């Protein structure tokens, strides 16, 4: 899959294998803080922003190997980061799919 100049590798089923990670609070900012002017523009300038929610009641939590309920937008961010960095996870040759 291509997104601009980045390629996101998928398996034969169209699935992306992500390097899963834990939520890292320093990488997120509250939309309310951005809208209220509480986030310095330099912190987000030139970056790819993914907007989402972490409210448990909206049931957007995704179970990954290192987190019980990673917010969906963070999973999308990991996929974008992986595509931009060209860092892919996949099965080694000869392994059963």
Which labels suit this protein?
97 residues, alpha+beta, two-stranded antiparallel sheet, two-stranded antiparallel ribbon, 3 helices, globular
Summarize the structure.
The protein is an alpha+beta fold.
Explain how this protein is built:
This protein is of the alpha+beta class. It has helices at 31-35, 41-44, 72-85, and strands spanning 2-3, 6-7, 61-64, 67-71. A hairpin with a 2-residue loop joins strand 3 and strand 4. The longest helix has 14 residues, at 72-85. The radius of gyration is 16 Å and the shape is globular.
Helix and strand arrangement:
Blueprint: E1 2-3, E2 6-7, H1 31-35, H2 41-44, E3 61-64, E4 67-71, H3 72-85
Antiparallel strand pairs: 1-2, 3-4
Number of E-state strands: 4
Q: Uncertain runs with pLDDT below 50, 5 residues or more?
A: none
The chain-level structural class is: alpha+beta
- Using only CA atoms, what is the Rg? 16 Å
Question: In angstroms, what separates the terminal alpha carbons?
Answer: 20 Å
Order of strands in the sheet with most strands: 1-2
The DSSP helix count reads 3
Coarse shape: globular
Strand-and-helix sequence, N→C? Answer: EEHHEEH
Beta percentage is: 5-15%
Helicity level, as a percent range?
10-25%
Q: Give the biggest sheet.
A: 2 strands, antiparallel
Mean pLDDT: 81
């Amino acid at each position: 899959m291509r997104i601009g100049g980045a390629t996101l590798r998928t398996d034969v089923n169209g699935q992306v294998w992500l390097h899963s990670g834990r939520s890292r609070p320093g990488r997120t900012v509250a939309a309310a803080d951005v809208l209220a002017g509480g986030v310095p523009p330099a912190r987000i300038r030139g970056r790819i922003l993914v907007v989402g929610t972490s409210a448990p009641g909206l049931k957007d939590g995704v179970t990954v190997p290192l987190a019980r309920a990673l917010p969906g937008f963070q999973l999308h961010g990991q996929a974008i980061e992986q595509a931009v960095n060209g860092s892919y996870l996949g099965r080694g040759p000869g392994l059963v799919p």
